[in-house]
Design brief:
The complex is a heterodimer of chains A (538) and B (359). Helices cover 74% and strands 1% of the residues of chain A. Chain A is built from 24 helices and four strands. In chain A, the strands form two sheets. Chain A has a two-stranded antiparallel ribbon. A two-stranded antiparallel ribbon of chain A has the order 3-4. With 359 residues, chain B is α/β, with parallel strands linked by helices. Chain B is globular, with a radius of gyration of 23 Å. Classes of the chains: A mainly alpha (538), B alpha/beta (359). At the A-B interface, helix 1, helix 6, helix 11, helix 16 and helix 18 of A face helix 1, strand 2, helix 3, strand 6 and helix 8 of B. Chain B: It comes from Conyzicola nivalis.
Amino acid sequence: MLGAGVPLAFVGVFFAWPVLAMVGRGLFVDGALDLGGFSDVLARPRTLRLIGLTIGQAALASVVCVLLGLPIAHVLYRLRFRGRRMLRALVVLPFVLPTVVVGVAFRTLLRDGGLLGSLRLDGTFAAIMLALVFFNVAVVVRTVGNTWEGLDSRQEEAARVLGAGPVRVWFTVTLPRLAPAITSAASIVFLFCSTAFGVVLVLGGSRFGTIETEIYLLTTQFLDLRAASVLSVMQLVVVVALLLLAARARGRRTAQRRVDAADAVHSPRLGDAPAIAVTLLVAVFLALPIVSLVLRSLHTADGWGLGNYIALGGTGSRNALVVPVWVALGNSLQIAVQATVIALVIGLAASLVISRRPRSPGLRRALAGFDGALMLPLGVSAVTVGFGFLITLNQPPFDLRSSPVLVPIAQALVALPLVVRTILPVLAGIDGRLRESAAVLGSPPWRVMRDVDLAIVARPVLAASGFAFAVALGEFGATSFLSRPDRPTLPVVIFRLIGLPGGDNFGMALAASVVLAAVTVAIIALVERLRVGTMGAF
Amino acid sequence: MHTRNTSLAAAGVLLAVGLAVSSCASDAAPGASPETLVLVTHDSFNLSKGTLAEFTKQTGIEVEVQALGDAGELVNKLVLTKDSPLGDVVFGIDNTFATRAVDEGVLADYASKDLTAAEEPYLLPAGSGLEQLTPIDNGDVCVNVDHEWFAEAGIDEPTTLDDLVKPEYKDLFVVPAANSSSPGLAFLLATIAAFGEGAPGDGGWQDYWTKLVDNGVKIDAGWSDAYYVDFSGPSSEGDRPLVVSYASSPPFEVQEGDTEAPTGALLDTCFRQTEYAGVVAGTENTAGAEKLVDFLFSTTVQNDIPESMYVFPVNAAATLPEGWSDYAEIAENPFVVSPDDIDKGRDAWLTEWAAIATP
């Protein structure tokens, strides 16, 4: 009970309540429900275009991320070669870079006269797509990779011995076992992309609107809460429809044998060549904006040098900042650790509950609904949630509006779905007979949980913590909304620096982004190092 | 390895801690303590260290700063939280959003008692903010020009808005979008003031923007994008020598040892933004809040404003830092749209603008 209660209370108080209150503001006029907004707003041709574009860009980006992410997951999680742990950590790098910085990096490459200017992509839909893939391909690599890593390869070997070709083995043996993880990853990517905001505005040159950008404009510029509420409801409809689809696709869970990762990996062989080729191509694509960013951060007014990095100890040209960048980095790390702990505790409790398979169909449906509820924060506008915080969390016991605890809580809300989606496929894949045999042999339920569920889940928990940490560290939307001026996080400081004229501030913003990315990668690499020998018993 | 029980216990503890912290936080909530005032403001608010401490020294009241996004977000958040205000004093409402704040009743009646006739040009009209808002600073949004680019190309620099649609300046101009950037909105207002309203086809601002688009103007989402990616200035990488930015941007491009700024502001293309402070309606410490508004208008803050926020103080008694006036120029006749007209017209203008500029 408690296992479901804590996550439900958390998502209820810090997500559902603020969102409902905000939507209610727009739909209730003088205490009466006014649904006239729906016919008004939905009758505008613009609205249909926004909805279409939102679904279109998110769906397309998800497909591309899966197609590119699968071969990379194979290379990084199934092949044995030096440096693969480092590469796994590096893949996450784009994920933590501030959107506004990546926007500038991409546009510098794509604009007329830029390195890739001849492709004429600046301000096009394709440019948005490139950036969405850049940010999200890591979600697929890591979510799928973690499942793949522990899959017993003897099933494939058996199929091969029985005469199946590699294509057939992939489609009939490997793919079905990866399907739940792929669906999980794709739905997360879809949610991230459907609420992408900065990327769509910056790379589309304001030409492409999505439900998300429209909610932002309606709420922050026009104060048209009625129309914003209608669009928030539409956003919820899209997200819930997607989650139902995903739940259906995940529905048929297959029990699978999991093995120690060491047994499942092999040295690269000829058959891996296509996957390795895709991985290399994507690596170049991911590296281009990052390399250009690093190069530009080393460029100062007096030529090449570390000037921008040295300046991070100060507060920018003409005191642009309240605190030096290093202090902001310290704030960021501290808050991200808190957010990771919250997301892990709540995510693990929720995953353990969701992975149960009760016999009653009603309970099963309730669990599926609970699962979906945890995903919602990714798919609902940060503007709606943020403004909702302001109008709900203003009375005891939740008088938190100006409290510093809201920052890690908001970050945890974004990291929570990633934690659940990383842990759940593994937990759900545990052969129920393992639990039954443990019970038959006399283990009390808590011991079954400890020796079966938690022993198997230890590895994905570590992976999830690295991921959650990265998400929390890079989170900007909610953080900028809630962070206190005297205790800014690094992304907030970067945003401020890049919003001021003067070469020093711009250079510092880039240097700070490089530092943010480097620190994240180092920490994730460290976490990866811890992931050894936890699967011995199976 | 943790058991499920300990992780659940941890979750319980966490929630308990959250609640405990929340009850502590409520002690520091706006208005609860007479000795602390919450100053809500926009993201660009910045003063030198120690400036606000001066207020505490004078009055014994601590000031806590809360940034709430850009000027538009700031006002909208105040409107939404009218019943349970986010702070006691607000700074950063500008002339483009003043009327909304006043009409929605988020401000208490108080304008600084220290205002003099010299600040009259900055005051809002009676009934539209005169009684509630005290001017604090102002700055111009103008087209910036890359002097070096034009010198190298051997082309005369444009000087007016009309010049920008001439064929010799084709594909040279970049602006941030009016609906997602506040300098972008300011520039749109400058063109509305210059060309007037009217139906498309009779020479109003819509026709001007159609000509700008035909002349290859580039629309970017935000200021940083326009300035750092597409503008050709020294700290930028782009190839467009004309950009909408602030009149205070050129001083930043001056390198040590230089005597001339490599970029400049076209002073006939400017829209003036004035920022105001006011007492938030519903504060429990009206006397303290009024003192804080007076303090923001005092020379202690006003002298600090140029270096910390890159705008001009409005107080006639304030002194500008040395060297500031060499490069920071101010338009003599900036374009003006009255706050009431802005409030009435903004939504329709932005919708029309988007249809023309970002089809």
